[in-house]
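We modelled the chain as a single entity of 135 amino acids. Its sequence is:
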Amino acid sequence: MGRRKFVLAALCALIVIAVGWALVRTADPETTTAGARACSLATLPPQALDTVRKIRANGPFPFPPNDGVVFDNREGHLPGQLRGYYHEYTVITPGAPGRSRRRIVTGGSPLTNPLQYFYTDDHYDSFCLVTDAGR
């Protein structure tokens, strides 16, 4: 009876390993956690680089009451984190009145050198993980 349980456990472990390996091999390398695709600063509008530079320098920001505030991720498009992990910053849209729809959302600390940078040009409906903006 003990040998039968061992063989069954070993078989289950092999199945789990095989399924995991298959999932890793078929994963899209352009997709990151929570479905955000990967992007580089070079593919974003030049104003996004300006915003990243301002974040690193701790300002000055174009919309002080709004830039640097906690982003709550209410839409759930970014990986789940505790409140206060994400902060949002305006990416200027030339010719647009006000803040428009483009943002950089950072994740982690310190605020001037966060772990993650996400970009959205549709006011939080979708994001890309900016792979070359961080540390």
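As a brief sanity check on the tokenised model: DSSP finds two helices and six strands in the chain. Residues 43 and 132 are 11 Å apart (CA to CA).
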